[in-house]
């Protein structure tokens, strides 16, 4: 699932789409989140459970930041702030997926917070 999320991030980096926009609205990330929800029960009680939770929260928080940025974008005054929100959320999503993937490689559970 980290690979699917990474693919969405790379699409955002290499195309005209925003990083966070490609992450939230890209098919690979949506597929990854659906798989996270479907397989979450099977991971219960293992270190993988924290990775599923980490990925799900990353997706939903990124979506929330997209909504905030979109709301700001609707106002002329808020456009610069909206762009900053989109940029910050994109960097944050890259960090979360990279950190999660490195922890998975080391077979370490993820911190439970957002």
SS strand fraction: under 5%
The average pLDDT is 91
**Shape descriptor:** elongated
Number of helices: 5
What proportion of the residues is helical, as a percent range? Answer: over 70%
Count all strands and give the number. 0
Number of domains: 1
Q: What's the assembly state of these chains? A: single chain
Task: Return the string of H and E elements.
Answer: HHHHH
Radius of gyration: 15 Å
Computed structural class: mainly alpha
Task: Explain what you see.
It contains five helices and no strands. It is mainly alpha-helical and 114 residues long. Helix 1 crosses helix 2, helix 2 crosses helix 3 and helix 3 packs antiparallel against helix 4. The longest helix has 27 residues. The radius of gyration is 15 Å and the shape is elongated. The mean pLDDT is 91.
Summarize it.
This protein is an all-alpha fold and 114 residues long. The protein has five helices and no strands.
Any descriptors?
5 helices; elongated; 114 residues; mainly alpha; 80% helix
Helix-strand blueprint:
Elements (H helix, E strand, L loop, with lengths): L1 H13 L4 H7 L1 H17 L3 H27 L5 H27 L9
């Amino acid at each position: 699932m980290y690979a699917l999320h990474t693919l969405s991030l790379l699409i955002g980096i290499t195309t005209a789409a925003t990083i966070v926009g490609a992450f939230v609205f890209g098919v690979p990330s949506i597929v990854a989140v659906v798989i996270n929800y479907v397989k979450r029960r099977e991971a219960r009680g293992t270190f993988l459970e924290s990775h599923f939770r980490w990925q799900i929260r990353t997706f939903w928080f990124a979506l929330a930041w997209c909504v905030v940025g979109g709301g700001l974008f609707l106002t002329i005054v808020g456009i610069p702030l909206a762009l900053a929100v989109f940029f910050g959320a994109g960097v944050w999503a890259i960090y979360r997926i990279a950190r999660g993937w490195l922890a998975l490689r080391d077979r370490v559970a993820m911190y439970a917070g957002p």
